[in-house]
Automatic annotation (TrEMBL):
Residues 77-279 form the Condensation domain. It comes from the Bacteria. GO terms for biological process: lipid biosynthetic process. It holds the Pfam family Condensation. Transmembrane segments: none annotated. Signal peptide: none annotated. GO terms for molecular function: catalytic activity. InterPro entries: CAT-like_dom_sf (IPR023213), Condensation_dom (IPR001242). This is Condensation domain-containing protein.
Length: 462
């Protein structure tokens, strides 16, 4: 297994580093073992989607930053985070194993913006270049980092990692720690190899069995399998729904009801799914759960987020009761999202064979908001503001043959509105139905917000 980050070829755009600086590193926690539950789940997703799921991005560097500063930051991160030093091995049967190195060398790329070329556009191209290159799970370190110089001075930094390294929350934690590394204390969270040992312990096996019982109860409530409807063209589509109306409505209901904003959003989605189905069945939502509320996982830079399963029986209920039931169902989903993916997959396959269940039913939900998730900025919207908020704009942005999850929505903050990114298998849920579902969520939200504001005490504010 080579110890260095091997040189990468230029792509069709001609993007190639001016130089590559070897950065030596060492760190604790070396060893080899199975993947943790969180790593197993994202690995299954990678295999299904035929992608190494690169995450990260680019940003301006603080004025005065030198290449040597970035080298020091990279060396520090490689030492501190075992996941940065983790590569895979594969057993004879194809099962992936993680190997954490005690030392090695990684390359820091340095790019120079050509004369007359827009620096930000060039940096974005560098970032896209990192994402587009194939990734070797066995030979490469899972981090690609490049400094972009303008006129010989470092101006931007692109950092792209394999999703096996961490989830989104861990990525934000890493950025904060690197920025304040002089004041950062020793790591305290359980690293993946430690997680594997805990998961094999009596306490971990108890969690495994209890979560498996929860999944068994939820899976049995899935609807029957339904036939697919093949269509011409790429099967999997991606679309964006930008909505100020949903943003303000969610804010208003959350404040009036004094309910967590994610529970409010999930209730809107559950009601919309139930109305779309029209058969009285419970809504199935599979939220991505950040398991860092668990002991030992609070500040770990690793992949610990996993999907839970929430079955909310809200058909025909008043909104307050629907919100209460969704909250209970969501709490159980969060509690038992820390699960053994292989065991759940085996149980799901057995149940599907026995009961003819549609294992792909429901919506995968990834609420990635960072600004409004805990509390919206500003005062509670008025009814006039909710009415005046612009309805959502929907546009389809990509179509491909490589699969996504069957029906997935990511929720992100934008100034004064939400961005809902929808992914769909069009053989199951055609684009027109996805857009109709997005608008139904928005319509339900606005109606419930106006109802709540009409009955709320006038003095209640954020």
């Amino acid at each position: 297994m080579p110890e260095t980050y091997l040189p990468a070829p230029a792509d069709a755009t001609g993007i190639r580093a001016t130089t590559r600086i070897p950065v030596r590193f060492s760190g604790d926690g070396a060893g080899t073992g199975p993947l943790s539950w969180g790593q197993q789940e994202i690995w299954r997703t990678m295999v299904h989607q035929r992608s190494w799921l690169p995450i990260g991005g680019w940003a301006p560097l603080p004025a005065g930053t030198t290449v040597e500063d970035v080298v020091a930051d990279l060396r520090w991160a490689m030492r501190r985070y075992p996941t940065f030093r983790t590569r895979l091995r594969f057993a004879a049967d194809g099962t992936p194993l993680q190997t954490v190195a005690a030392w090695g060398t990684i390359g820091l790329d340095v790019f120079d913006v050509p004369d007359g070329v827009d620096a930000e556009a060039y940096t974005a191209a560098v970032d896209a270049h990192y994402r587009a290159l194939d990734y070797d799970f066995v030979a490469e370190w899972p981090v690609r980092m490049g400094v972009v110089r303008v006129g010989g001075r470092p101006a931007y930094l692109s950092t792209v990692t394999c999703h096996l390294v961490t989830d989104g929350v861990g990525g934000r934690l890493m950025l904060r720690e690197v920025a304040a590394r002089a004041e950062t204390g020793p790591t305290t969270g359980m690293q993946p190899l430690e997680q594997v040992r805990w998961q094999a312990s009596p306490a971990g096996q108890q969690q495994r069995e209890k979560s498996l019982r929860h999944w068994d109860r939820m899976l049995r409530q899935l609807p029957p399998k339904r036939p697919l409807t093949p269509r011409d063209g790429p099967r999997h589509h991606r679309g964006e729904f930008h909505s100020a109306a949903l943003y303000h409505a969610t804010h208003a209901v959350s404040v009036v009801a004094d309910i967590d904003t994610s529970q409010v959003l999930m209730t809107f989605l559950a009601i919309a799914l139930t109305r779309e189905a029209g058969d009285g069945r419970p809504a199935v939502i599979r939220p991505m759960v950040d398991n860092r509320f668990r002991r030992g996982l609070g500040d770990v830079v690793a992949m610990v987020a996993q999907h839970g399963i929430c079955v909310a029986d809200v058909a025909g209920l008043p909104f307050d009761e629907a919100m209460r039931r969704t909250g209970i169902a969501a709490m159980l989903a969060y509690k038992w999202a820390y699960h053994d993916p292989a065991a759940v997959a085996e149980r799901a396959a057995a149940l599907a064979g026995e009961l003819d269940l549609d294992l792909d039913a429901g919506v995968w939900l990834n609420d990635r908001r960072t600004v409004s998730r805990q509390m919206f900025p500003g005062d509670k919207p008025t009814a006039e503001q909710v009415r005046a908020a612009a309805p959502g704009e929907f546009r389809w942005t990509a179509a491909q043959d490589d699969p996504y999850d069957p029906l997935n929505v990511d929720v992100d903050d934008e100034p004064g509105r939400f961005l809902l990114t929808w992914f769909t298998d069009t053989w199951r849920t055609p684009p027109a139905r996805v857009e109709a579902l997005a608008r139904r969520v928005e319509t339900i939200a606005v109606h419930q917000a106006l109802t709540a504001l009409d009955t709320a005490p006038e003095t209640r504010t954020l």
